[in-house]
Amino acid sequence: MKFTYFFTRRLFHSILVLVGLSILIFIIARILPGDPARLALGPFASKENVAHLRHEMGMDKPLHLQYVAYIKGIFHGDLGLSFQTRRSVSLDIAHYLPATIELVMASIVWVLVIGVPFGVLAGRYKDSWLDNLSRVVAFIGVAVPPFVVGLMGQLIFSYGLGILPTTGRLSLLMPPPPTRTGFLIVDSLIAGNFTALGDAFVHILLPSFAIAMTGIGQIARLTRGSVSDVLGKDYIEAARAFGIPDRYVTFKYMLKPSFIAPLTILGLTFASELGNAFLVETVFGWPGMAKYGIRAILRKDFNAIMGIVLIIGLAFVVVNFIVDVLAGYVDPRIRIREEE
Amino acid sequence: MEADESALPLEGSKITITSWMAFKDKIGRGWYRFRRNPISLAGGSMVLLVILLAILAPYVTPYPRHAGAFTDFSSTFQAPSGSHWFGTDEVGRDVFTRVIFGYRVSLMMAVVVLGLSVPFGVFLGLVAGYFSGRIETVIMRTTDIFLALPPLVMALAICSAFTPTIEKAMLAVASIWWTWHCRLIAGITRSIKTEEFVQASQAIGSSHARILFKDILPNCASALMVKITLDAGFVILVGAGLSFLGLGVQPPKPGLGTMISYGAQHLPMKWWLTVFPSLAIFFLILGFNLLGDGLRDMLDVEAEGI
User: Fold this and answer.
1) A8-48 residue pLDDT tens
2) What is the pTM of this model?
3) Most exposed: A100, B17, B50, B72, by fewest CB within 10 Å?
4) What is the predicted pLDDT for the residue at B99?
5) Which of B158, B161, B268 sits opposite A159 (nearest CB)?
6) A148-152: long-range contacts (C-beta < 8 A, 24 or more apart)?
7) C-beta atoms of A305 and B142 within 8 A
8) B3 touches chain A (CB under 8 A)
9) Do A143 and B267 touch (CB under 8 A)?
């Protein structure tokens, strides 16, 4: 199958998922809770006020028209007003999102830097102590809730050893670098402010690791499995029989096909880490989406909830699209399987 | 372990199972392998221990009254000791007792969520896999939409539409959980439906229901068993997360996630309030995962989506 065909198919599929997702979110936010206007104003608001707000929110129109209006708004970057901050939800999200993305990106780095090499070594030296260790790490990683990893990390490294900070993205007395991208690490690099960079780095270590824990174990096991599969293949045997040096066999023939399986689930890892970020941000007082989102949920701020869920869904769909296309590009077999 | 496997006439995953009897047979022979695997035995014992403790909670815990809105201000924040193994909390309740009662909620969560979502997901999966065409497209694309969000975020969004209680949290998680089972079963069904014994069944005029539930479903049973075991741990994890964020178990009811979230406010001095519930939840989920892994070896499951 031609790559362009594969690409358009995946793109079409992603758009379909996004449309479905917007309908689902619309149902959750507009139909399940009963009357958002009443919830927003509280039980003591007068009927006239509620009716007025319903009209203002366009909720007196038929549902399908409301949905159309909602979609139109999305395309204009308008996700409605947040009841709690009295600001536009898109502004709020733009304000809180970078912190979360930075955190999740850092945890993906943990996964790639620890999980992948660990898995390669475990697969290369099967049934060695390293392999057993990777098994233990995977089991622990899946069984410990991320907020527990965070809390235990705080207990050991912050309260016990006193080497890592407990909360926040920067120390209280540290002047933040001028905001360009919202990513503190990038911003402090742009500003050339290396003290801030170091401070931001120290602050992100623990929370990002807490989020990454599950992913590290999963990716390590998956990489291990696919490395040991590839090592059993005839062409590796043949390469060895030709007397090609071991190091060369590993780097030239083994690694690329071994990375395809972990690559395909990296999108799912990203999604679950976005979810875990909600828990870990709470532990570390990280000023990201979770803090905003949870407050929105507790206060029934539906526009904000819809906006956040939509953004997370969008992030997931985009990341998965990239991962799928990348995998299909690297491995033609995936493209062919799609056709069947 | 490898040597045992080759010595035994065990069937591989490629051999299809034609009836529920054959599945029972497979379990019987797998049990031998299960018994000899220390990891699966450990997992099984851990889960069994927690289930027993949870069921017998009022009898095995030292202070059953502390499971509710009990207060004893003369013994608040006591460190772990002989009389309070896990210490006491901010109103003087025994943490050990509350952890054991917390297990009840966690296990109930797993039972309710999987009890609701698995039959639904399995049914849709069978239908989607067996009847290809439009019906399959609709079902599978719907699962795609649900899978586009992390389970926790989806559950959060649904929970937000209601007043937060543990029952609502269970319903919210159940309403998204069916997708995983649906995809798993659809995949297996798709590969099984072209087998000869299914065609034979079709040829003698068996009803769709008979083919789905008596011919195809037994082939999904192994994968389903493993999936449900692993999922039990995962559901408990999500439930603990919801409770941790204040959207699950509401105090004074003891929930492990809720206890951890309250305990975290008293770190590092009153460490036992956080550490013991955390260990408890780790123990249970680890047990389910080890058990699921053991079952996977025992039943030789190699399906996608597990």
Assistant:
1) 888 998 998 899 988 888 887 776 666 666 666 766 777 78
2) 0.87
3) B72
4) 92
5) B268
6) A148/B260, A148/B278, A148/B281, A148/B282, A149/A209, A149/A210, A149/A213, A150/A206, A150/A207, A150/A210, A150/A279, A150/A280, A150/A283, A150/A284, A151/A283, A151/B260, A151/B264, A151/B267, A151/B274, A151/B278, A152/B275, A152/B278
7) no
8) no
9) no
Mean pLDDT of the A142-146 span: 90
Asked if omega into B277 is within 30° of 0 (cis), the reply is: no
Chain A residue closest to B161 (CA)? A33
Which of A33, A305, A312 is nearest residue B149 as measured by Cβ atoms? Answer: A312
- Domain A89-298 in CATH 1.10.730.10: no
Q: Is B159 on the interface with A (CB under 8 A)?
A: yes
Tens digits of residue pLDDT in B154-164: 888 888 777 77
CA gap B249, B4 in Å, rounded: 46
CB A220 within 8 A of CB A124: no
Q: CB–CB of B144 and A24 under 8 A? A: no
**Chain B residues close to A25, C-beta within 8 Å:** 157
Quick check: B273 pLDDT over 60? Answer: yes
Q: Do B281 and A25 touch (CB under 8 A)?
A: no
Instruction: Using the Cα atoms of residue B270, residue B55, residue B165 and residue B139 in order, give the sign of their dihedral.
Output: positive
Amino acid A56 reads: E
The total of structural domains in chain B comes to: 1
User: Would you state the pLDDT for residue B52?
Assistant: 95
Whether the per-residue pLDDT at B288 is higher than 50: the answer is: yes
β-partners of residue A88 are A81
Q: What is the pLDDT of residue B8?
A: 37
Segments forming the whole domain that contains residue B112: 33-59+86-299
CB–CB of A275 and B151 under 8 A? yes
pLDDT of residue B27: 83
Q: Least CA distance to B287: which residue of chain A?
A: A143
Nearest to A275 among B150, B161, B233 (CB): B150
| Residue B233 and residue B289 in contact, taking contact as beta carbons nearer than 8 Å | yes
Please enumerate in sequence order all residues whose Cβ is within 8 A of that of A131, keeping only pairs 6 or more positions apart, or say none. A122, A123, A125, A224
Give how far A281 is from chain B: nearest CA, Å: 11
Residue B233 burial (CB count, 10 A): 24
Chain B nearest-CA residue for A141: B286
Higher pLDDT, B129 or A298: B129
Residue B6 lies in a domain: no
Note the pLDDT of residue B5.
39
Domain coordinates in residue numbering, chain A = 3-75, 89-298
Portion of chain B with pLDDT greater than 70, in percent: 93
> Is residue B103 very low, low, confident or very high in pLDDT (cuts 50, 70, 90)?
very high
Instruction: Give B-chain residues touching A152 at CB under 8 angstroms.
Output: 275, 278
Is pLDDT at A2 greater than 80 in this prediction?
no
CA distance B22 to chain A (A): 30
Length of chain B as a residue count: 306
Burial label for A201, CB within 10 Å (0-12, 13-18, 19+), is middle
* A154, A317, A320 ranked by CB distance to B267: nearest: A154
Any idea what the CATH number is for the domain that residue B175 is in? 1.10.3720.10
The answer as to whether B81 is a domain residue is: no
